[in-house]
């Protein structure tokens, strides 16, 4: 069976069998999570909505498997909460062709900066405060 490489997470590649639909068991096996976890994630992440066929069986497509892989990465490897993972997926949605969006492109950052209507001085002050909070959270600075 031919395998397609689908980029699910930056710097990671997941190999999927070359087929259109995957059962919940296949997705659970591919992503190394249990089926009940997938069913729970369906309730928490509106983007994850596999089709259902007779007998209420779930059929995931390749982009659903990609999304499951991204959710697992955010929750298990990055340590995000469900809420944090939801926010991250809203900010950086997956593109259907299997490529992750790049929100850090200079044009996009410049557009966001210009759209925020804050002065350069306020921006620098905000950056310093955010760095301070990160250092406190990382334990580099004690409060």
Keywords:
single chain, 143 residues, alpha+beta, three-stranded antiparallel β-sheet, two-stranded antiparallel sheet, elongated
Structure description:
The strands form two sheets. The protein has a three-stranded antiparallel sheet. Strands 1-2 form a two-stranded antiparallel sheet. By secondary structure, it is α+β, with helices and mostly antiparallel strands. The longest helix has 18 residues, at 120-137. 13% of the residues are buried. 51% of the residues lie in helices and 15% in strands. The chain has two domains: 3-91, Multidrug-efflux Transporter Regulator, Chain: A, Domain 2 (Orthogonal Bundle), CATH 1.10.1660; 106-137. Mean pLDDT is 76; it is low at 1-11 and 96-103.
């Amino acid at each position: 069976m031919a395998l397609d490489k689908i980029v699910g997470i930056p710097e990671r590649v997941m190999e999927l069998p070359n087929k259109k639909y995957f059962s919940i068991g296949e997705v659970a096996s591919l992503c190394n999570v249990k089926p009940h976890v997938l069913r729970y994630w369906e309730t928490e992440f509106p983007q994850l909505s596999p089709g259902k066929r007779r007998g209420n069986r779930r059929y995931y497509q390749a982009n659903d498997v990609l999304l499951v892989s991204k959710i697992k990465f955010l929750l298990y490897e990055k340590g995000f909460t469900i809420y944090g993972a939801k926010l991250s997926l809203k900010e950086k949605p997956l593109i259907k062709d299997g490529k992750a969006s790049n929100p850090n492109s200079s044009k996009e950052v410049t557009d966001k900066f210009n759209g925020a209507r804050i002065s350069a001085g306020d921006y620098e002050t905000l950056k310093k405060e955010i760095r301070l909070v990160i250092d406190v959270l990382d334990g580099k600075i004690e409060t």
